[in-house]
Amino acid sequence: MKRTKKMMLVAMLSTVCCTHVAAQGLNIGDSKNMIRIDGIIPVTNINMTQGPKLLSDNSVEFTVRAPEAQKVQVDIGGTKYDMTKGDGGIWTVKTKPQVPGFHYYSLIIDGVSVADPASQSFYGCSRWSSAIEIPEEGMDDFEVQDVKHGEVRTVHYYSNVEKAWRPLMIYTPAGYDEGNKDYPVVYIQHGGGEDHRGWMEQGRTAQIMDNLIAKGKAVPMIVVSANSNVHSRNGGFGGGYSWQGMQTFRSELIENVIPFVEKNYRVKKERKSRAMCGLSMGGGQSFYIGLRSPEVFANVGVFSTGMFGGIRGASNFDLEKEVPGMLSNTKAFNKQLDVFFVSCGEQDPRIEYTRNIVKKMRDGGVKVKFNSYPGDHEWQVWRKSLHEFAQYLFR
Q: How confident is the model at residue 164 (pLDDT cuts 50, 70, 90)?
């Protein structure tokens, strides 16, 4: 029965496509990344005539051809929409208006959730998913602009923790290959269910850095994105919101990743020229590893972490216990850091816990920058977090 259902799904997906959209109102003009054709055709679509279409009110129109399917839905951001079957097996639906940002979505065909073959897929939420971008006015720094561009490289280093070759994605700023200067480095960490690709693809790190550097708002810097899904030496994956749980990845980062980068790239090797930041799980890693390794990092950014509260299992976070000296020897703690930055989305369940912990830090004399942005636990918030954090660094 399962085999039959799987074969039927493969047959249906082989015919999945979107109908032709009318060419009225075609306007390529001022938008560098989108083609307007009775709405907006995202660049993540495979071509102009397939995939979702963004309408003027930020709702999304999905059209799927699946003539043998009995039920088709679209799941976008956790909300499921039933599609209506029309002539020729064409299923359609229009969603409610979506908030600006990057939204994962999946097709659900007869109960099986799959990525849309008419749209680009991204690794997130522990699987390959389709996604659509809802543009936000005033966020041009997240788009490709007419400025000098850096380069994102995928390289491999040997891990003595996993005893295997592992990938890194590294952003180098414009002019890196032509010059001989050394650069400061940001080690940036992804969230749970993601990997080293997240910040460079969904997070638009290169676009953000290119535009900030071109405007003189950020100093030229290298950004390194590692895969923190590292197997523990004792079996399983190293992790967990505790100092002990961070030890496997701490070893990977400090004993393997940083030495590889400093051997193969022109980087400044003192602590003041290193930063660590990350989102969600990566924010927890940055908090523990960054703040408890002052001999390595002088700059730390913590974005949307759940360890302060707002997620299951997080409660009564003790700052002094988790980072000894933060409250008992605050003067020394502050002296170790050039930048300490915390952020969270305003609709994220973590926001009130984050605000409360920042207040405790400030009441105790800790010098910490904080900002919140409209949005839930999602990429638009994290892009804005990097955008702000980068402007504080290495001044």
A: very high
Residue type at position 107: L
Tokens for 273? 């020229």
Measure Cα distances from 48 to 40, 43, 59, 250 in Å: 10, 8, 18, 45
3-state secondary structure of 251: helix
179-238: per-residue pLDDT in tens?
999 999 999 999 999 999 999 999 999 999 999 999 999 999 999 999 999 976 554 444
**Cβ neighbours of 4 (radius 10 Å):** 8
- Spatial separation of the C-alpha atoms in residues 64 and 92, rounded to whole Å: 6
Q: Distance (Å, rounded) from C-alpha 301 to C-alpha 30? A: 34
Sign of the CA dihedral with 331 first, then 269, 341, and 218 last? positive
Residue recorded with tokens 């973590």: 350
Query: Phi and psi of 247, rounded to 5°?
Result: -65, -35
Collapsing DSSP to helix, strand or coil, 291 comes out as helix
Residue 143 φ/ψ region, left for φ over 0, alpha for ψ in the -120 to 50 degree band, beta for the rest: beta
How buried is residue 1: exposed, middle or buried, by Cβ count under 10 Å (0-12/13-18/19+)? exposed
- Residue identified by tokens 């849309």 is 116
Q: Round to whole Å and give the CA distance between 201 and 188.
A: 13
Taking a C-beta distance cutoff of 8 angstroms, is the pair 35, 41 a contact? yes
pTM of the entire structure? 0.87
